[in-house]
Amino acid sequence: MTDDEQGLLTAWADQLRDALGIEADVDIPAVLGLAGVAAHAVVRPAAPLTTYLVGFAAGQAAAAGQDSAEAAAAATRVARDLARRTRESTPEGDTSP
Asked: Can you give the residue ranges of every domain in the chain?
């Protein structure tokens, strides 16, 4: 990603967080890294779905009183582990569900 793209993405994330009333910082490289893992382990559309579900799980955990950063890290570990197991159990080149 170029510096210009990173700047645009950071600005977009800041604007969206503000519009949604989200005060927590966003680790953009971590989100994009998780999206890449999901896209390569399952199919490309798994990227946004995975990041949404991980964020949702982290939000639920935080609402229940857990530390939001720890909740996000735990949800990310679960998703990465599941993606790894999915990739290992899928014959190479087979992207069917």
From this structure: 27-89
